[in-house]
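User: quick one, fold this
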Amino acid sequence: MTSDNPLVLHILAPMREGGLERVVAMMSTGRPTSVHVAAVVEPGSAHNHPFIEQLEALGIPVTPIVVGARSYFREYRSLGALVMRLRPGIIHTHGYRADLIGGTVARAHDIPTVSTAHGFTGGGRRNRFYEWLQMFALRRADAVIAVSSPLAQRLADDGVPPMKIHCIPNGFKPLVATVSRATARKALGLPASTLVAGWVGRLSTEKGADVMLEALAECHPRWRLSIIGDGAEFARLRQQAEALRVSDRVTWHGSIANAGSLLSAFDAFVLSSRTEGAPITLFEAMNAGVPIIATRVGGVPHIINDSHAVLVPTEDPRAIAEALAELERDAAGAASRSQRARERLLKSFSLGSWLDAVDDVYRIVAN
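Assistant:
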């Protein structure tokens, strides 16, 4: 969109760090004069939330919508007041809560709505209920952007009209430059010469950190594991590491802002997910030039293939362990794959082409 086009209001309930948040940040930095971001956050976090601080540092207009965890009516009214003040031409929602409440606000004000479906986590009854609510909201949106072909098919199968679905894989532009290996290792407190596999993500079942811990137990003891991220599974994963007797080989870094800039620290980046859309951490690893091992799930095989990375089946820790051993045996082959992966990132997932495709969706719903 240009400055002459209607304002786009992005709505999301951001976690402290995650792929969805980085997608919105990249979208916003790509069109800084025609976007505004509404970030739904809980009391006490508005003034130190890393997502809000990042947008402010990048010069992106952002309004915190400060409400309690279940203060849905207050959230509706606050978003409605913001819409009345900004008069956006498009409302773009991200995540089930924004899709449901932000989408309802948009329809009440007769504003076209676009939602990006970033993926579904599956899991227990509560998550499945949230997914049901989100799917209900997506069927009512004017357009839905799916970040991978499997996700687009899932949306159609669950009743989103096919003419509303637009398959647009995420694009990428680093928000912070990748630092050198030595600088990254120092920042993470890692020894200079130790073999380290890196794992980055939310500590939740669908991300498969437990599979990575099992893989570590099958690896040569030379390998260590750095886990960057936080989440509900943290305590259970710590217990699993102790039961597998690998606790002394695991470093738990917690959530780190701009973790993608530190991936150069690793001898391998492992994505052990059970389900994915188009993971931004994968793009960050491609950009960092680090050897990649990834499960063949969701949109991952549409982003990279065997010439760019070692792709393994999901739920297969032995395959991950064998891939790490292969990376150690054939460092030259791993480096060649990493170079091809970075070339593919630059050629096929540029920020400009991605934003142009999103702009086309905006034009469709605005007319």
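User: anything notable?
Assistant: DSSP finds 14 helices and 13 strands in the chain.
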